[in-house]
From TrEMBL:
Main location: other
Cellular localization per UniProt: Cell projection, Dendritic spine; Cytoplasm; Postsynaptic density
Superkingdom as given in the UniProt entry: Eukaryota
Gene3D superfamilies linked to this entry: 1.20.5.1700, Pleckstrin-homology domain (PH domain)/Phosphotyrosine-binding domain (PTB)
Listed GO CC annotations: cytosol; dendritic spine; postsynaptic density
Record protein name field: Homer protein homolog 1
Gene Ontology MF term list: G protein-coupled glutamate receptor binding
Species in which this protein is naturally found: Rhinopithecus bieti (Black snub-nosed monkey)
Similarity field: Belongs to the Homer family.
GO biological process: G protein-coupled glutamate receptor signaling pathway
PROSITE patterns reported for this sequence: WH1
Amino acid sequence: MGEQPIFSTRAHVFQIDPNTKKNWVPTSKHAVTVSYFYDSTRNVYRIISLDGSKAIINSTITPNMTFTKTSQKFGQWADSRANTVYGLGFSSEHHLSKFAEKFQEFKEAARLAKEKSQEKMELTSTPSQESAGGDLQSPLTPESINGTDDERTPDVTQNSEPRVEPTQNALPFSHSSAISKHWEAELATLKGNNAKLTAALLESTANVKQWKQQLAAYQEEAERLHKRVTELECVSSQANAVHTHKTELNQTIQELEETLKMKEEEIERLKQEIDNARELQEQRDSLTQKLQEVEIRNKDLEGQLSDLEQRLEKSQNEQEAFRNNLKTLLEILDGKIFELTELRDNLAKLLECS
């Protein structure tokens, strides 16, 4: 498709009540996307809005349209082709101003495109009318096709030698035949061009008639709209109704803005809670890692303690064995000492006896 979106915004869409022509009727339950489209094949600008699969706005911008700001957040324009008036309620004055600027910009572009198209058609139709008119006014005769003797003379002199009496340097017959074929070909080309110019003239005439009809229709529509505007200005109750509806819309928009603000604050609070939860999770992960390290260290210390207990038990066993051996040695030593004492006593007795 040659139609592409060039600007989009969001707004609540309304249409004038076709029965009363006074009250606004909402065509969308909530804010929808409203876009400017440019059709490069037809060189036109359109405003299109869809609510689901339903087109609630399909308005072609013309140089006669006017976008009017009726409040800080509401604007409207009349579409004579759709025989209705569209209204848009925006969330802020900035969005309304931006939409109005784009409307004026594309309206001016549509006007320039229309002027260029008219100039192009005028330039195309003017030469066609002159050429075709001349061909239609004069009947086709040998003189009009090939020219008179006076008209043919310059062409002949440009393509051949100066005419003299027949001598040895005269042109042969075959060369004259080639020149005749050349002029026959030129004649056929002229006939083709004449037919093309005639067709172009007929097409231009038909287009002019169509444009005149469209212009007359546009003028009638403009007069009807002027009368309608006069009637609307005379009805004072419409102004009160529009003012009341405008007040209700402003209150609704304010309520929606307050709700949106509360939702944004709630979102910020939830974001803070999420950040706090992430910090607590990081702290828990850190403590878990430290606890694992402490448990590993405790296991190492328990291993070392078990090793020390085993070594202590072994040392105690060795000491007990040493004590037992020492007791046994002392008992043996006491026996030997006793035997030595008896021996000494016996020796003393022997000495006394001798």
